[in-house]
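re: the backbone from monday

yeah here it is again, tokenized this time
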């Protein structure tokens, strides 16, 4: 038996104004009518079963999560007092499973990625859980198609096993978000995969690696664990969790561990990390435009035009722009700078008059 944890935090900055702090990307419907988090949940219960599928999210997002997945038992949603990145999130989930007296393989998946080819995904999950049972730290990689600087990269080592046609390899090196020059060399080498943010391990194994490579985080998690089942449990969580180091599992463990293995995931995958991602997901018209909603364009080329309001968005004679009209704001940015939206939102958050438009 294995359990899955859907990581559903996030702060909704990269796809503003459609996503916001309290309405992050997992609640958006991108390619399907259903939201990304609901699609992820369906994928997980299909393989792991409803009783073995958990969601971990910021506490303030629990109600919205339930509105998208009303059938999930409330006890299978774990609320973080605040978002502290993936390493505290994963460590907290691991001690929660240990508290149940289990050391079963845990698979962690982002809630906001697009994944297709369900049969291939299930085969990868089967291989990942079998490797996790053996004590490995498992990650899933995707074959790169471009010199992307926003993803972590995995250098693939020697093949160690094969499960039903799914090859499993030693992880030779893990590099988080390289420069464009380095990303280009990784792409050309043919020996690197993108980090898909999907991991598998037993709770005891990942906690031991956290202890070895990030003892400060481990000590905080142990304080919380010792309080489980006591009258002061909630008080300790409220006090200790916000003090945990804010760090990703990539930096805390994956770049340092000697137990890591990688499985190439041959399913279709995209993390939809910025507006330009739509160019990879949707067909374009004869002038290279992608349009959503009530849009009328004239003499326009190579643009992403999204209108979520019940009024006409008219666009004339421009090219290479992203234009988003949403309830909380209007965004106009050149395509090549669409990755800067997060920085722009960070600036809005610092302005008392404007931050309400990104919350």
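seq for it, each position gets an aa:
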């Amino acid at each position: 038996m294995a359990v899955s944890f859907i990581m559903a935090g996030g702060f909704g900055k990269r796809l503003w104004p459609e996503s916001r702090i309290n309405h992050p990307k997992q609640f958006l419907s991108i390619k399907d009518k259903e939201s990304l988090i609901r699609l992820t949940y369906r994928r997980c219960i299909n393989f792991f079963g409803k009783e073995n599928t958990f969601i971990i999210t910021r506490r303030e997002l629990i109600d919205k999560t339930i509105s998208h997945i009303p059938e999930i038992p409330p006890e299978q949603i774990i609320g973080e007092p605040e978002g502290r990145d993936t390493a505290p999130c994963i460590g907290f989930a691991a001690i929660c499973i240990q508290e149940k007296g289990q050391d079963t393989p845990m698979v962690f998946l982002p809630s906001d990625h697009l994944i297709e080819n369900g049969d291939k995904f299930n085969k990868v999950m089967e291989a990942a859980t079998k490797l996790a049972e053996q004590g490995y730290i498992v990650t899933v990689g995707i074959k790169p198609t471009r010199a992307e600087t926003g993803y972590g990269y995995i250098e693939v080592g020697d093949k160690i096993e094969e499960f039903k046609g799914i090859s499993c390899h030693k992880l030779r090196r893990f590099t988080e978000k390289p420069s464009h020059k380095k990303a280009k060399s990784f792409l050309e080498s043919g020996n690197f995969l993108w980090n898909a943010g999907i991991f598998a391990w037993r709770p005891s194994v990942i906690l031991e690696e956290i202890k070895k490579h990030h003892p400060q985080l481990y000590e905080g998690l142990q304080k919380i664990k010792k309080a489980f089942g006591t009258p002061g449990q909630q008080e300790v969580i409220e006090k200790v969790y916000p003090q945990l180091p804010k760090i990703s599992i990539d930096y805390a463990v994956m770049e340092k561990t000697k137990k890591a293995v990688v499985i190439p995931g041959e399913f279709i995958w995209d993390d939809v990390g910025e507006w330009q991602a739509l160019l990879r997901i949707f067909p374009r018209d004869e002038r290279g435009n992608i349009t959503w909603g009530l849009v009328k364009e004239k003499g326009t080329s190579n643009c992403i035009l999204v209108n979520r309001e019940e009024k006409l968005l008219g666009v004339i004679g421009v090219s290479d722009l992203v234009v988003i009209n949403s309830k909380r704001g209007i965004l106009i940015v050149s395509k090549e700078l669409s990755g800067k939206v997060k920085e722009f939102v960070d600036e809005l958050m610092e302005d008392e008059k404007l931050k309400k438009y990104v919350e």
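The mean pLDDT is 95. Residues 275-357 form one domain.
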